[in-house]
Specification:
It is built from 5 helices and 5 strands, in the order βαβαβαβαβα. β4, α4 and β5 form a beta-alpha-beta unit. With 145 residues, it is α/β, with parallel strands linked by helices. It is globular, with a radius of gyration of 16 Å. A 5-stranded parallel β-sheet has the order 2-1-3-4-5, sandwiched between helices. α2 packs parallel to α3.
Length: 145
Amino acid sequence: MSEQGHILVVDDELGILDSVKRTLEREGLRVTTTDSGEVALDLLRRDDPIDVILADIMMPKMNGVELLRAVRAISPSVDVVMMTAFGTVENAVECMRAGAYDFITKPLKRAMVIRAVQRALERGALIRENANLRQLAGEEARESF
């Protein structure tokens, strides 16, 4: 992957966490994993920025949609890719309305995971670049007066 990034993977299935972590680390990404939505939110609040979150929808205590809504409130710039073994149109629509960047179904395919993360990282980079250019343009406009 061309964009370096920090990815947080949230799933209550430890095998999925391990598999996704290995897949993304092979792509040169830094990956943190947790099996809890609550822990994911604690990690998001730390000083170590997270670029993309991959979250399972069906988890105990806090499900993926609840996590997604909390992420949008805490850090709206972090893109969230939802994962589920129960890929219905209703699930996908609910996730997208709640602010998910993408939606992928299990069993996960390596290429689909990489593609979803890559696109989310590229989108984040474009948003940051756009913000930097706007700031530069504003500074130049102020200097010309």
